[in-house]
Amino acid sequence: MASSIACGSTLKVASFEGLHARSLGLRSAEPAASVDMLAGDSVARREGRGSSVVTAGLKDLRDRIATVKNTQKITDAMKLVAAAKVRRAQEAVVNGRPFSENLVKVLYNVNEQLATEDIDIPLTNVRPVKKIALVVITGDRGLCGGFNNYVLKKAEQRMKELRAIGVEFTVVSIGKKGNGYFKRRPQIPVDRYLDAGNAPTTKEAQAIADELFALFVSEEVDKVELLYTRFVSLIKSDPIIHTLLPLSPQGEVCDVNGACVDAADDEMFRLTTKDGKFSVERETVRTETPEFAGVLTFEQEPVQILDALLPLYLNSQLLRALQESIASELAARMNAMNNASDNAADLKKSLSISYNRQRQAKITGEILEIVAGSTVQI
User: Fold this and answer.
1) Catalytic residue among 7, 144, 254, 260
2) How far apart are CA 130 and CA 278, in angstroms?
3) Which of 34, 49, 280, 340 is the most buried (most CB within 10 A)?
4) What is the pLDDT of residues 108-138, one digit of tens each?
5) Residues 356-366 as b or e (16 or more Cβ within 10 Å = b)
6) The whole model's pTM is what?
7) Pairing status of strand 131-137 against strand 168-174
């Protein structure tokens, strides 16, 4: 315990090392000019350290501890809200998986029957790539760790690769954070800014799909790439890029490197209480889809069916990407708020120790002063 006490009729405020002005929100104060060493107490400034000691009063520490407690309550509440929302978002992704998988099977079956025919479907036309539309999906809010930064860095990396090979590109930004990022950088060509909201619906996905469909069919762009954050688990999310247009007739979803980005296994979780605190239990579930007949009989021409199914598949892929991005953002926010709560608990403990030491030093100094006064000869 380090304390600096001035002998005399008045007691100076104790000074302590180890309390940084920036962490306590206090002003740096120069130590008192005359201090005495009592029982091995440290001096106000150590030689060679070159940094001034912070004078932190008991009231300042009490206020700081109260502020940290209030902040911890806020971060705990935000963590629970994000946990409840990410559960619903993940359920939306899982519930839509049977529809997507059956749609893929239908597309594959139709394509097998059309393997020997020369069909012309606008969404599957492969052209020489001269210009690419890069669709970047970000979040609408902050306080989610590095979620948005990872997506934007991935977008910058992809744009750098396209510049290196001499391919033109334009950006379609979805999300307020991405919109603000690209608006501050006028050198990046942006075709349009779109908002998807915190709970994307089929209607919103349809509006975005119509915009991308118009860009591709009008041949303003020759390829559309989708960049979003794929939800893997509560502690892991991967920013990925996959080709959205032209669509694969088989309905395969692969990234630009050819790796499959579909996941049959999902991590689900539920909130429980453990030792008087909220905790999260995780489990891996596999979504079961009903058996699908391998042989189909079509009443209409397969070309007409394929022409109707591919736009539907495009909408489902966009909706799924939006839902996974929302789930990843909420999971990142939950982890960020959990880390903030843990840091607040550590800071509160450190401040409480400093407060108790300073209070004990003050009481000890007053006792020493009383004892010294009682020994004075009258």
Assistant:
1) 144
2) 53
3) 340
4) 777 666 666 666 677 777 888 899 999 999 9
5) ebbeebbebbe
6) 0.71
7) parallel
